[in-house]
Amino acid sequence: MGKRSNRVAYMNPVAMARSRGPVQSSGPTIQDYLNRARPTWEEVKEQLEKKKKGSKALAEFEEKMNENWKKELEKHREKLLSGSESSSKRRQRKKKEKKKSGRFF
Predict the structure, then answer these.
(1) Tell me, what DSSP letter sits at residue 36?
(2) 39 with 47: CB under 8 angstroms?
(3) How far apart are CA 68 and CA 75, in angstroms?
(4) CA-CA distance, 86 to 91, in Å (whole number)?
(5) H helices within the chain, ranges in order?
(6) pLDDT digits (tens, 9 = 90+) for 41-68
(7) Is residue 63 in a domain?
(8) Where is this region: Disordered (predicted)?
């Protein structure tokens, strides 16, 4: 009885791929991408102008928000200006209370 051969036949991957035939690609090819319809220079200029102008609705919304923000700022300023006098009185009261509480020690 002779020894068994444990050799495995070598399979060339490139030759195997060629034997299967051309690969079915999914999606557009490079040629499809290069041959696509492109806008003319005039159309590109028009699109850029539209972007610069922006939408009217957005401009109105921003304007309204700016007005609301200004009103809110005015309210806060009034509160701070009117509240500054009362806050100084509060500070004086706190100082007095601290002095009183310090006497017990």
Answers:
(1) S
(2) yes
(3) 11
(4) 9
(5) 13-20, 30-34, 41-53, 56-103
(6) 999 999 998 888 777 888 888 899 999 9
(7) yes
(8) 73-105
Per the structure, the count of domains in the chain is 1
Amino acid letter, 65:
M
Indicate whether 85 belongs to any domain: yes
What CA–CA distances, in Å, run from 30 to 25, 26, 27, 95?
11, 12, 10, 80
Q: Which domain holds residue 47?
A: 13-102
Distances (CA, A) of 61 to 5, 55, 75: 83, 10, 21
Sign of torsion, CA 75 80 85 90?
positive
Burial class (CB in 10 A: 0-12, 13-18, 19+), 57: exposed
Count how many residues are written for the chain.
105
Q: How many CB atoms lie within 10 A of CB 60?
A: 10
Phi, psi values for residue 21, rounded to 5°: 105, -175
Tokens representing 61? 């919304």
